[in-house]
Amino acid sequence: MTITSNIERVKKRVEQACLKSGRSPEEVNIVAVSKTHPVKKIVEAFNCGLKVFGENRVQEAREKFKFLKDYPIEWHLIGHLQKNKVNHAVKIFHYIHSIDSIELAEKIEKRLEALGKEIKGFIEVKLSEEETKHGVSVEGLNTLAEYCANLRWLKIIGLMTVPPYFEDVEKVRPYFRKLKELKEELNKNVFNGTLTELSMGMTHDFEVAIEEGATYVRIGTGIFGERNYHGN
Predict the structure, then answer these.
(1) How many angstroms separate the first and last alpha carbons of the chain?
(2) Number of domains in the chain
(3) Which of 38, 54, 70, 202 could form an S-S bond across to 78 if both were Cys, CB 3.0 to 4.6 Å?
(4) Residue 184's domain is classified under what CATH number?
């Protein structure tokens, strides 16, 4: 399978999921998750029309950015952001999907103010008990949201989650539905309708995510094939 044919297939799946749920494909942004994949594959995907790319690790993104800084790519950080990586992250990325604490949001805000740069962000919510998953708890979400709503440079536009993996994708539906419910509650109580985005769904389950309201789906394997963990 080529990257070109993979992209066509993913776009078709997005269209079909939107048709099934009465939505327009224009509402859904495909984030091509390029972690562990080489620069040449990103360029190939870019030349096929993709402009939004997601990386998990700041250091890997920095290395790729050296070669791709002249490409009009919209860079999304979709992995956990350590506070000691904030200085580098805010220089590269346009979106951060993994805001999970007041301390992290505060540090990002201070660095952005120093740079005079705005970044759009998602609050990552942990909806499962898995220890490997990151995100603010449902109980802590309101406090974090209230803090973030008053920030000037870090503009929170939505919520993100990484649910557990299930072979049966229907089992993941309640997690996506819950995230949408939380977004709607925050829009009423905290954000006054400005929380418009949901980052949820990956190669395995993004159709279900779209049916439940996803506006950003994070597709890696479906576009680039299996990951290579032995370097770039």
Answers:
(1) 20
(2) 1
(3) 54
(4) 3.20.20.10
Residue 232 maps to a domain? no
Q: Which residues contact 69 (CB under 8 A, 6 or more apart)?
A: none
Confirm whether 231 is domain-assigned. no
Look up the domain containing 83 and give its range: 3-224
195 in any annotated domain = yes
Tokens of 73: 């790519």
Q: Is 120 helix (H, G, I), strand (E, B) or coil?
A: strand
Q: 75-113 burial, b if ≥16 CB within 10 A, otherwise e?
A: bbbbbbbeeebbeebbebbebbbbbbbeebbbbbbebbe
Instruction: Per-residue pLDDT tens, the chain, 232 aa: give them.
Output: 799 999 999 999 999 999 999 999 999 999 999 999 999 999 999 999 999 999 999 999 999 999 999 999 999 999 999 999 999 999 999 999 999 999 999 999 999 999 999 999 999 999 988 777 899 999 999 999 999 999 999 999 999 999 999 999 999 999 999 999 999 999 999 999 999 999 999 999 999 999 999 999 999 999 999 865 444 3
Q: Which phi-psi region, left, alpha or beta, contains residue 92 (left: φ > 0; alpha: ψ -120 to 50)?
A: alpha
Whether residue 216 lies inside any domain: the answer is: yes
Q: Give me the sign of the Cα torsion angle 166, 56, 151, 29.
A: negative
